[in-house]
Amino acid sequence: MFYREAGQFKTSYKADQAVFPIFQDRIFVAIWLFLGFVVVPMLANEYVFRAIFIPVIIMALAAIGLNLLVGYCGQVSLGSGAFMAVGAYAAYNFMIRIPELNPLICFLLGGLSATVVGVIFGIPSLRIKGFYLAVATLALQFFTDWTFSRIDWFTNYTPSGSIAVQPVEVWGFVFDSPIRKYLLCLTVLVIFTVIAKNLVRGRIGRAWMATRDMDVAAEIIGIRPIYAKLSAFAVSSFFIGVAGALWAYVHLGSWEPLAFDINLSFSILFMVIIGGLGSIVGGMLGATFITLLPLFLNQLPIWLGINMSTAMVSHLEYMIFGGLIIFFLAVEPLGLARIWQITKEKLRLWPFPH
Amino acid sequence: MKYGTLLRTLLLSVPLVIAGCGQEDGASDATTSNEVTQSAGSSDGIIVDVSDPNAQFVPVLSYRTGPYAPNGMPVANGFTEYLKLINARDGGINGVKISFEECETGYATARSIECYERLKGKGPTGAAVFNPMSTGATFAITEKAPVDKIPLITMGYGRSESRNGGVFPWNFPIYGTYWTAADVLVTHLGDINGGLDNLKGKKIALVYHDSPFGKEPIPLLEKRASMHDFELIKLPVTHPGVEQKSAWINIRKEQPDYVLLWGWGVMNSTAIKEATGVRYPRDQIYGIWWAGAEPDVRPAAADAVGYQAVSMISSGQAQVHKDILSYLYDAGLGSGERAGVGEVLYNVGLLNAALVVESIRTAQSKYGEKPLTGEQVRWGIENLNITEENIQDLGLSGYMYPVNLSCSDHEGKRAARLHRWNGESWEYSTDWISADDAVLQPMVKSAADTYAKEAGLPANACES
After folding, report:
1. Rounded to an integer, what distance in angstroms lies between the CA atom of residue A75 and that of residue A110?
2. Is the pLDDT score of B28 beyond 50?
3. Which residues of chain A have pLDDT under 70?
4. B24 contacts: CB under 8 Å, gap ≥ 6
C-alpha cells in the first residue's frame, strides 16, 4: 500500500540504474540519514554513543569490508582481525613517526597498509579454495598476532606492548567528545558504504560475483581470476584496515595485541553470515546484531528489575545469544538482509497478498 | 507457518531454560550466586539501591565467569562484602551509605570498557573510584579516566610508571606495582644466594601471561639482568594459559635456576602441574602476588608444596572477618561460602575495598559528609594517610599496612613479603623485603616522561 512503485516510470538509463530506483527507498534512506546525523546526536547520552553507536558503526564498516570479500567474491577469510590490527598499528606508526600528518590521512594510510598485506596474503587464494583458503588466512591472523606482540618497533618500544593513542586532531579540531567521534565514524561509514555499493554494482563487482558463482565459467567469459580475487582482497582489507584504525583510535584509545585476536575475526565473519552474504545492508544488520545483542541481554535483567548474580546473567547471555543465532539461521539461512528483503516484498503486496 | 511453530517452541523453552539454570546454579555452585543475598530479604540498609540520592556509588568491575573466574570470584566477594559490612556495621561512611553495582567483564578489555561506560555516571554523583581488576583494562581506562575525572585504584597491578602522580594524577597503584614486585623477587633471590653479585651467571626464566600484565615486569628484570649479569629467559604463555607445554619443555631443556611465574587464573594451576610434569622443583618457582592464592595451588594439591609467591596480603582472619561472618553470613547476606572468607584473594578484594572506603572517608573530611564526585575522591586518595592506629580501629590489624600517599608517590609502599604454600595454607616465609628505589625511580621517571610526551601532557603537574 505505502510501499509500491506503481507509477514510477524510468525514462532514462540513469534512472534505471540508480542505487535506489524506488522513491520510497530514497525517502527511507533519507530518514535514516536524518536520524543518524541529526536526531541521534540530539538525543543520545554518552553511554549510548560510546558503548553502542561507535562500536556498531565501526564494526559495520569492517563487516561491509569482509562482505565484499566473502559475500561478493566468495573467498572465505578468517583474517579480518589481522587486517584491523594492521590498520590500527600502521595508523599508529604513521602518526607517531610523522607527527605533522593529518590523522585522517593516517587512517587511510593504515587502510592502505592493510591493502598491501591483504594482496600479499590473497595470493594463495589463486590456488586454494573454500575452507582451505579460510585456514590459509588463519596463518595471517597468527602472523600478525606474533608480529605485533614480538617486534617492539611496531609498538614504539612500550614496555608492556600496550599502545596509548594520541588525540585525533584535524586542523585544530579535536575529536574528543563522544558526539564528535560518533559523527566522524558515521561520516566514514556513509562514504565507504557509497563506495562499496557502487563498486559492487559496477564492472569490478560483477567480476567478483562471477568468480564467486563459478570461477571456471568466469574465466571463460574473460574475467581474470587473479585480478578479480586480488582486487577483492585489496578493497576488502582496505575497508577493514580503516575500520581497525578507527576501532583503535576512536573506540579503544588504548589497546594490546589481544584486542585484535582470532575472536575478532570470528565475530566479523559471524556478522557477515548472520547479516547476509552478498549484501551491504546485511553487514550493517549483522554488526548491530552481534555487537548489541550481548549488551542488551546483559542489561535486560536490571531493566526488568530481576535480581540475579552477574555470573548468572553472563551465562544466560551466552545461552540466549547462541540460541538466537541458531534461531535466525534456521528461520532464514540467507541472513537478516534476506528477512529485510522479504519484508519489503510483503509490504509491496500488503494489504492484498493475493 | 512452520516458522510460527518454531518461534512458539523457542519462546516457550526460554523460561524453562532460565528456570533450569537458576536451580542448577543455586544448588551446585553457591560461590557464584548472589541469589542467597537477595532471597534472605533482611537486606534493608545493607544493599542500597543505586538510585538512592544519599548514597555514595562505588562501581564494581568483576569477573565471575570465564577462565579467570576462580580468581575473580573471591576478589569480587571480598570487595563487595567489605562495602556491605560498612553499611551493616557502621551505617555507611560517616553515615553516607555505599551503593554498588557489579558489572561482569570476563577479564576482557573491551567488555571492561563497556562496563566502565555503563557504570561511570550512576549514583547521585557518578562513580567514586574504579578498580578495573585487570591490567589490560587499566591501560584502556587510564586514557578515559582523566576526561571523566574519575580516579583509578589499581592495587598491585596496572602501569608501573603510573605511581608518578605528576603525569598520572588519576592512577593509584597503591601497595605496589609489578616493577616493585619483580624487584622484591630479584632482591630475595640475591639474599638467598648471599648477595646480588652472586646472581652472576645464573639463569632466571620468566613464564608470563602474554598480555600487558605479563609483560610489565620485563623492563625491570632486563635492567636487573644487565646489572648483575644473570641470564633472563622470557617464555610467553598465550591467553588464557591452559596451553603452556612448550614453555615448560624449554625450562626442562634450559634448566634455569629460578622460574618467575607471572600468571593469573587457570594459567597458574596449569603452570604448577606442568612444572611437576617436567620435574622442575617447585621451591625454585616464585609467583607474582596474582599467582599466590588458593585457586592456584589447590588443583595441583601436594605437588604445589614449597611453591612461593610474593604477597601483598596473605590468608587468615582479623577482626573484620569476624564482623563479616556475624553481620553478613549469619544474616544470610554473604556472597560466597563461609570457608572462603579470609582466603588470599578474598583478602585482596577486602583490602582493596578498605582503601576505597578510607579514601572516601579522607575526602569527606574536606568536602563534607555527603556523596562525593570522582574528582573529590581523587583528592581523598592522594591525601590518604593510614596509620597503624586507623588500621586497629578498622579491625584490619595485620591485614592492612600504613600508607601515606602524595602527589609524587601514588604507590606508597615498596616492600612485600613472600609466602609459601605448605599444602594446607599460605604462610609467610620471609620478612619484609624492600625494592631498591634507586633502580625503580629512574625507570619510572623515564617511562612517565615518554608517556607524557606522547600524550602531550605536562611532564610534572605536582608543583602547580
Report:
1. 23
2. no
3. 1, 353-354
4. none
Contact B455 A164 (CB under 8 A): yes
**What is the set of domains in chain B, with CATH numbers?**
41-176+316-406 (3.40.50.2300), 179-311+416-437 (3.40.50.2300)
* Interface ipTM: 0.86
Amino acid at B67: P
Q: Which residues of B touch A316 (CB under 8 A)?
A: 18, 21
- Residue A149 cell numbers, joined: 606482540
Residues of A in contact with B25 (CB under 8 A): 309, 311-312, 315
| Element housing B382 (H / E) | helix B374-382
Distance CA B404, CA B258 (A): 34
The alpha carbon of residue B211 is apart from the nearest alpha carbon of chain A, in Å, by: 7
Cβ–Cβ of B139/A316 closer than 8 Å?
no
Question: Among A233, A264, A262, A232, which Cα is nearest to A247's?
Answer: A264
CB contact under 8 A, A315 and B69: no
Query: Please, which residues bridge with residue B232 across strands?
Result: B204
Q: Hey, which residues does B130 pair with through a beta bridge?
A: B152
Verify whether the Cβ–Cβ distance A309 to B33 is below 8 Å. Answer: yes
Mind listing the domains of chain A with CATH numbers?
Answer: 52-349 (1.10.3470)
- Report whether the peptide linkage leading into residue A257 is cis, meaning its omega lies within 30 degrees of zero: no
- DSSP, res B298: G
Report pLDDT for B3. 53
Query: CA of B459, closest CA in chain A: separation in Å?
Result: 16
CA distance B425 to B413: 25
CB contact under 8 A, B142 and A159: no
Bridge-based pairing state of the strands B258-262 and B231-237: unpaired
Best of A310, A315, A317, A343 to substitute, by most chain B Cβ atoms within 10 angstroms, is A310
| A54-92 per-position pLDDT tens digit | 999 999 999 999 999 999 999 999 999 999 999 999 999
Interface test with B, best of A295, A309, A313, A329 (most B CBs within 10 A): A309
